[in-house]
Each structure stands twice: as C-alpha cells, then as structure tokens.
Amino acid sequence: MTAKCAPHRHSSSRSGNRSGKVECAYCGVRDKAACRGLSDSGQAEANTVSYRKVVPQGGVILREGDPVAWCGVIVSGVVKLVKTSSDGRQQIVGLQFGDEFLGQPFEQSWRLSAEAATDVDICCFSQGAFDGLRGRNPAFEGALLQDAMGSLDAARDWMFVLGRKTAEEKLASFLVFIAERLGPGKSGAKGVQHVTGGVAFDGELPLSRTEISQFLGLRIETVSRQFKKLKALGLVDTSGNRGIRILNLDRLRELSESELA
Amino acid sequence: MTAKCAPHRHSSSRSGNRSGKVECAYCGVRDKAACRGLSDSGQAEANTVSYRKVVPQGGVILREGDPVAWCGVIVSGVVKLVKTSSDGRQQIVGLQFGDEFLGQPFEQSWRLSAEAATDVDICCFSQGAFDGLRGRNPAFEGALLQDAMGSLDAARDWMFVLGRKTAEEKLASFLVFIAERLGPGKSGAKGVQHVTGGVAFDGELPLSRTEISQFLGLRIETVSRQFKKLKALGLVDTSGNRGIRILNLDRLRELSESELA
DNA sequence: GGAAGAGGTTGATCTGCGTCAAGAAAGTGT
DNA sequence: ACACTTTCTTGACGCAGATCAACCTCTTCC
Predict the structure, then answer these.
(1) CA B32 to CA B254: how far, in whole Å?
(2) Among B158, B3, B63, CA closest to A111
(3) Partners of B113 in the β-ladder
(4) Is the pLDDT of residue A218 over 80?
(5) What digits encode the pLDDT tens for the residues A92-138?
(6) What average pLDDT does this structure show over B228-255?
(7) Do A44 and A14 form a contact (C-beta atoms < 8 A)?
(8) How big is the CA angle at A241 (ends A238 and A244), to the nearest 5 degrees?
(9) ∠ CA B54-B55-B61 to the nearest 5 degrees?
(10) CB of A117 within 8 A of CB of A77?
(11) Residue nearest to nucleotide D25 (CA to C1')
(12) What is the distance between the alpha carbons of residues B243 and A91, in angstroms, rounded to a whole number?
C-alpha cells in the first residue's frame, strides 16, 4: 500500500532528437504537454531537479489533508482522484492520464486523495523546485493554465453526467470516455489495441467495478446490471474482471446522449 | 434577452489610493484577485483595453458553441454556467461570483453557456487584448492559474454533492455554499446582511427554484419539498420566491455532511 | 380590480436505482 | 490442483426521488 518512490538522476541526451532540445533520458518528457513552454535551460533544470515516483495498482499516491510538498506530471498509468466524506462515502472526481499535471500548487494541504488505478509512473518536483521552474519559464505557466482549464472542462462535463444522466447513459458515457482516452495510439491501459471489423476497443479497463460505480455515482450492483444490458444489446463484451471489447462505439455514443430509445 | 454591452473609457486616478497604483476609475479593479500580478503599466493597459458588459438577471452572457471572442472578470453579480444536452436536459456546472475569471482562452468555441443569475457586470477583454496582457505580465498568468485551480476544486467538490448526497443533503450544501459566498462582507446578492441573534444570513438567493434544481441534479418539486422540511426543522425561513433567512448555519452544515440523523 | 402568466407548492402515484442477501467467478498463494 | 480471498453477478424487495396533475401566490398590465 505504500508508494514506492524511486528518485533518479536524469542525464541530458541529444541522441535521436530532431530538434536538438534537452530531454529526460529516462522518461523523455521533452514533448510532454506539461513541459511545453520550458526553455532549453528550463528543460535541463527540470531534468536535474525532478525525481520519479512509481506506484503499483491500488497504491496511495497522496492523501487528502496531508501537506502539499510536491507536484508532478504523470508519465504513464491512470490516476484516480477521490473525495471521501466523514461517513465513508467516496466519489471519484477525476481520472488523470499520461502527460497530465498532478498537483495543487496553491493549497497548503491536499483537498483530495489520489490513488493508482493502474501501475503509475510520475515525474515529480518538490514544491520549491517547481515554483522556481514556474518563475523562470513564463510559457510553462501557460501550459499549466491550459492543463487546468482542460481539467476544469472535463470536471464540468462529468457534473452533467452525474446530475442528469440515467445509469445506462452513465455507463455508456464512461465506456466512450475510456475508448477515447485509451484507444489506439494512446497510453495508459494494458493490452490496448485497435481491432478492425467494427471492434472499436479491445483492452483492459483502468478501473474495477467498484471504482466505476464510484466514478458514476452508482452502486456496484447497478453497474453490473448495466453491463449485462449493454452486452445483451451486443455493444460490448467483457472477459474477466477488467477485460472489455467495445463492439459498437457509435451506438454507445448515441446511448450515452439518449438520442435513441 | 440580449446582453447590453456598455463599452467605456477608463481614466487613471490616484485619488484615495494608498499604494499609488493605477486603478480603473469605473470599477476599481486594482485589488481584484484576477488583476493581481499586473504591473503598473499592465494595469494601465488593462484599463485602456477593457470594456464593460452589463447583463440583466436572466440575460444570456455567452452561448455554448459560439466562437470565443472575449473573456473577462466578473465585477458584480452571480453568473451561472450551464451545460445542455441535445434532448434539453440542463445542468448548472458552476456559479461564478465577483472577482472570478470568466472565459475559455484555449478553446475555439464555448464549451458551455453562461447566463446572468442576478444582474451582472463584467470587465471584458477581447481575446487579442487579453493574450497581450497575459504575455506581458507573467504574474498575471499565475493569478489566472490560481483562479482556475480554485474553480477546478470547487467543481470537484460539487461532483461529490451530485454523485453521493441525498436531496436533503444537497439543498443543505447549497444553502451553506450560498451563505459562505454571499454572507456578510461578500458581494453579489441583493439585501444581504448579517443579522445578530442566531440568524446567519438574511437576503435573496441568487437562483430561482428551477435553477437550484438544475444545480443540484434534482427536480423542482423535490427542491420545494426539501425547503419545506428545512423550514419545519426551523433551520431556514423563506419569503417570496427568493427571500431566505438562514437561522441555524451550524446545524445546516452538519445536515449537509450527514453527521446527524 | 380582475385577467393572464410565471413561478412555486402540494398531493398521489410510479419507477429506477438502492439495499440486502446469496452465490458464482476470477484472482492468488501454496 | 487446491483452498482462500477478493471481486463480480444475480435475485427479491423497498424507498427516495421522479412524474403527473391540480392548485396557489405573486406580479403585471389593462
């Protein structure tokens, strides 16, 4: 349950690097969205002061209430952000994928918890190192702003799902969301592949049934029953606890917006 | 229904201004959160290029799908952000108060609609003027980032409310939220005042019953019934369509977190 | 002052999802 | 291959909140 922290030294390398920019030899963060806006020297600085956090599936990355001492960029894997009430109810309030920023640089203590939905690898900075980087790279701040605005819009999209959609629409929305985030060419799920012949997605879900229910504001039994319905409609196929094949993404998308019976 | 746009020239004035900084003579934006980070010259530039948008209660400020041509800072009033689905369901995905940033600077078209929940006054910038301001004032970008992170956290708090709370808890949460935002010393509601003798809040709600239901993911009838319950418990008192007196904020806060029967 | 409309309340009934309980399947360690 | 644990599925039943419908309370406008 304890997060394994694996600090590492980054070496700068120019091998196989068209633009000639400095990049992290270990994780290749150069073209990551969150690193756009870093000057060459800023990139080099980032490589020097960053360290790595590797957390296995199910591990806790940070806990609500703990003091904020670092932030980072997700290199690979899926992170779930969780809010918990005093009586134990939990709501997943966000899923973060590779390239996305993770942190609350203006808060004293974390306002939510983060856990590894899959095995996760994060490129981290201490609060101080991060502030320095921000101060010296104005365009980097812009990239962070863009990331935050994107997350904000995603959160608001999900508010609509939580407040106004039926259980069936919710699950359909989730599956469309997963297919779009983890589809061909994307990173973050195990065994993902684009299969020809109508199969839009074939891979593993980054969340268990319990986690899906926590994301959708439903109970696990309801999620299970909705999966059964979608299977009966021939839209998806499941195997084991996390295996999923999306057989008809277009129809699923329609269902998620209730544009058919 | 059409937004009244009231462009105006700003004059710089130093009268009664301790720090001697330039400020907008019309709206006094100098100390607004979103203007922190502007240099003196940046402040002067902001005053020159900004214009004013005044929208009466119920008016549309911007429409989902329309091209993004401006952004701004709310000077006074309450703005509701709305997502609408193709079949007409609506969800309020955010309430914005005075001092908060309004805009989606990285989007081509608006991802949501905004309407005036009360009479609203906005200090606006064209996209181009805004980008220039951002580019020339690095710390201003930081203030925007802080605003965005704050909105993101607020959205996530509300995701918990939508996904996990009962109708009673939802309404209690809303009333606590309103009391905290529009309480004594805050701006944005009509006739707000702090009353001694156990009354935590006495003023007007910025939302109609219909809007409250759209914010809480409920139907108007349910909101009405929950108001009745809270009145029976002696926690609030209502008068007319928007009048509200919060008689026991502590108890309401407990109710919103279900820490009592 | 009364007609018309908008917004809110109240009651009766229905239903989608939650709750409770049992069991099956998948995953894990020996 | 086995036992053991965790996770998921399925069924029976109940209830919170939705739905439908009637009525009430303002406001406004003639």
Answers:
(1) 32
(2) B158
(3) B82
(4) yes
(5) 999 999 999 999 999 999 999 999 999 999 999 999 999 998 888 88
(6) 95
(7) no
(8) 30
(9) 110
(10) yes
(11) B240
(12) 33
Which pair of structure tokens corresponds to residue B231?
């009145």
Interface of chain B against chain A, CB under 8 Å? 81, 83, 85-87, 89-91, 93-94, 104-107, 111-112, 134, 138, 141-142, 144-146, 148-153, 155-160, 162-164, 216-217, 257-259
- The pair of structure tokens assigned to B145 is 């980032």
- Contacts (Cβ under 8 Å, ≥6 apart) of B129: B49, B50
**Is any atom of strand C within 7 angstroms of residue A136's beta carbon?**
no
Q: What is the pTM of this model?
A: 0.88
CA B29 to chain A, closest CA, distance in angstroms equals 22
Distances (CA, A) of B194 to B197, B235, B258: 10, 16, 26
Helix axes B167-182, B138-164, angle to 10 degrees: 150
**DSSP 8-state code for residue B109:** B
The pLDDT of B8-30, averaged and rounded, is 44
Place of tokens 């955010």: B94
Tell me the per-residue pLDDT of B195-225, one tens digit each, with 9 for 90 and over.
555 788 999 999 999 999 999 999 999 999 9
Write down how long chain A is: 261
CB-CB neighbors (< 8 A) of A144 in chain B? 145
